Amino acid sequence: MTIIYAIIGAVVAILAWVAGSYNSLVKAKLLVESSWADIDTLLKKRFDLIPNLIETIKGYTDYEKSTLEEVVEARTKASQINIDISKATPEQMQAFQASQSELSKGLGKLFALAEAYPDLKANQSFLDLQAQLQQIETEINMGRRMYNGAVRKFNELVQMFPSNIIANIFGFANKKFFEIENEEERKNVKVKF
């Protein structure tokens, strides 16, 4: 009878361990997906704000159409790439990150362009839009950091023993970090006076 209780106890302990490991993996996966959804929401806010910013700038600039068109085109490309993070491939993540980098670079050019127009810099609508966009960019960067933290935690569970056993059994795979794709973004900014 004691052996039966020992066997039942061992089976219950193993089942509890499997359930606990599985639940930890599911929670970590949901945190990754939630973090990605937060980034997606912020990107949508940025996409919605850009047309207003461009229209405000158009009123002040006549010959800078190539910069405005570049931002509009980058916004269009970036908004067309939608990723289901639970099924994202490394190639999809790379394309997404590249499109977001292009949009950020275009916005940087747009703000540099605004420096050449004192009337535009003094326009309250432009200043409000610029402040909102800068706030959103800050929130996007914070969201990326949170996403990468969630990915790190999830990948640890997927790779570390003994939870990697459960991860392999149930098909959990590593997630890709949100990384800088463009080497230009890694270089120091050169400021000239």
Protein traits:
mainly alpha; de novo design (two linked rop proteins); 76% helix; disordered C terminus
Indicate the topology.
Layout: H1 2-58, H2 65-80, H3 90-114, H4 118-122, H5 124-159, H6 163-170
Helix pairs in contact: 1-2, 1-5, 1-6, 2-3
Oligomer: single chain
Instruction: Write down the Rg.
Output: 24 Å
* Overall geometry: elongated
% residues in beta strands? under 5%
Query: Helix and strand succession?
Result: HHHHHH
Structure report:
The protein has 193 residues and is an all-alpha fold. It has a single domain, classed as de novo design (two linked rop proteins). Helix content is 76%, strand content 0%. It contains six helices and no strands. The chain is elongated and about 90 Å long. The C terminus is likely disordered.
Summarize the structure.
The chain is an all-alpha fold and 193 residues long. It has six helices and no strands. It has helices spanning 2-58, 65-80, 90-114, 118-122, 124-159, 163-170.
